[in-house]
Amino acid sequence: MNPPTGRQHAPEPVPSTGIATLDDLREHLQWAVELEHATLPPYLCALYSLDPERNPEAVEAVAGVFIEEMLHLVLAANLLNAVGGSPRLDAPELLPPHPRRLPHGDASLELSLLPFGDAAIDMFLHLEQPAPAGAPAEGDRYETIGQFYDAIEAGLRGLCDRLGEAEVFSGDPARQLHAGHFAHTAGRMIEVTGLASALAALEEIVEEGEGTSRGAVWDGDPDVHHPDRDEVAHYYRFQELRAGRRYRRGDTPASGPTGEPLGVDFAGVLPMRPNPKVADHAPGSEIRAAQEEFNRTYCTLLHLLEQAFNGSPRLLAVSVASMYQLKAQAQALMRTPDGDGATAGPTFEYVPPEERGWGAGDEPQRVDVLPHGPYLVRGGIPLRRKRKIVSAENSALTWQTGDALPTEPVYALCRCGHSRSKPFCDGTHALIGFDGTESADVRPYEELQHVHDGVGISAQRVGELCIHAAFCIGRTRPIAEMLAETGDSDVRSNIMGRIEHCPSGSYSYALRRGGETIEPGLPPAIAVLEEEDGLASALWVTGGVPVHRADGRPLETRNRVTLCRCGQSAGKPLCDGTHRKIDFREEAPGPAGGAAAAQGEAI
């Protein structure tokens, strides 16, 4: 395979690169994931501190860099997956206190959480500085990011020469993220399948930071915000912001930017306190509570990204959607006075999963309700469609099971009712500002039930769980009226059959009052329910799969639970039958939209 042109290729690997084995390569690519992630918090602080009305051009510049750094993170994960690694993001070592150095970088490369201004621009110029001509590859304690990626390139080439491409690129191709997963970037989203594509991914990362051919101002892509003009590399974008002028054709790194003015109002910046920390404020204080909420949201983002990188790529759209919450929370902090003329700011501190509320459960199979977001389904729980079969008189008879829907190891199901990829989430909840506040009664079933005895049967009912699927009504009389006739075994059998078809378990039964409840044998699964005339109904969770609310309180684990998916239930996350009142329908499956189509707006 011929490598892509346009870069000065590093020499064959030498001991100083530290990449002599596949394990070395995977270790360094994990460092690359950590490196690309480390750039995100400083860029977000600078971006969110900018007043978009007074600094629209600076907002576009910093937002464009951030979006491309997200692309670099995805490319680093693709590289690591391609060589049989497993990217890690949701880990405390990825969020050490700021100021901090780049992972395994030179100690002089230090990152801080700063508002936009001279100090932030100096930091970004140091971060993105091009490697000097002829600079050696550096696998550890690297002086520039370009030298670090040169070491990875040298390691890749050397290992392929010695072991062969097939041995090096042994990862599962299904883990590769592609352009359909990551939209709204002028850069190239490259699936890594061999040496040529791996070198192309490395080239994309370095050129967007340093410029084409190591010394040119341009990165070879169209401008993400203005596709009609060429885009300058990250380092030179910050040179433009420093000089207040754009680069134009013919300009060089030596000449600096000589083009049209670029307006920067340094007074139009929120004065965020540098490197804030949660510990700076008393427990329970307004600022500390807001910072803790931001950190939970950010760690949720890391968790979703890690799942997306490890076999569930559809979750990338869901993770991008969480940026909407992150942005609102950060900007609210930056508008909160924090004394001495400064405002508060986000701290980007790690929150353990057990302290995030929704992530408190440790069951291998479970459903987590994300705050104002979708249902996150873990453990490979099968997903199928079930259609209600009705009589000629439109009475409920039974459920017909359809084919299994293809899923990933972890998948997200729509809770807002507006996804264009139902039943899966596509991030639309963030675009529409979905309010997923939960109000379901969390008391045990036994405390809520009303018991009605018959002969040889004791019927138990919890009205709050009813989704109005109508199996309890029957063709003639409801169950409540039939209990007096249960001395007739046919009547009793009829009641038992109807109760066992009740999807929510609103009705259950025992053979006598206080006896053991008899439940149908239902496997751990989730069914997407469709009722008569194509009416879209609830998500039917069966087989005792635990459901954890976003606030951390678990729902009682039962054999049958029905979750709202129209977004309008008054008892979220449980279904209350509102889908019938609003005539909720599931549109024909279409291309994923939502947040994936508006990533720039999320940033």
UniProtKB/TrEMBL annotation:
<feature type="domain" description="Iron-binding zinc finger CDGSH type">
    <location>
        <begin position="548"/>
        <end position="585"/>
    </location>
</feature>
<dbReference type="GO" id="GO:0046872">
    <property type="term" value="F:metal ion binding"/>
</dbReference>
<keyword id="KW-0001">2Fe-2S</keyword>
<dbReference type="GO" id="GO:0051537">
    <property type="term" value="F:2 iron, 2 sulfur cluster binding"/>
</dbReference>
<keyword id="KW-0479">Metal-binding</keyword>
<dbReference type="Pfam" id="PF12902">
    <property type="entry name" value="Ferritin-like"/>
</dbReference>
<dbReference type="InterPro" id="IPR042216">
    <property type="entry name" value="MitoNEET_CISD"/>
</dbReference>
<keyword id="KW-0408">Iron</keyword>
<feature type="domain" description="Iron-binding zinc finger CDGSH type">
    <location>
        <begin position="400"/>
        <end position="435"/>
    </location>
</feature>
<dbReference type="InterPro" id="IPR012347">
    <property type="entry name" value="Ferritin-like"/>
</dbReference>
<dbReference type="InterPro" id="IPR026820">
    <property type="entry name" value="VioB/RebD_dom"/>
</dbReference>
<dbReference type="InterPro" id="IPR018967">
    <property type="entry name" value="FeS-contain_CDGSH-typ"/>
</dbReference>
<dbReference type="Pfam" id="PF09360">
    <property type="entry name" value="zf-CDGSH"/>
</dbReference>
<keyword id="KW-0411">Iron-sulfur</keyword>
<protein>
    <submittedName>
        <fullName>CDGSH-type Zn-finger protein</fullName>
    </submittedName>
</protein>
<dbReference type="GO" id="GO:0005737">
    <property type="term" value="C:cytoplasm"/>
</dbReference>
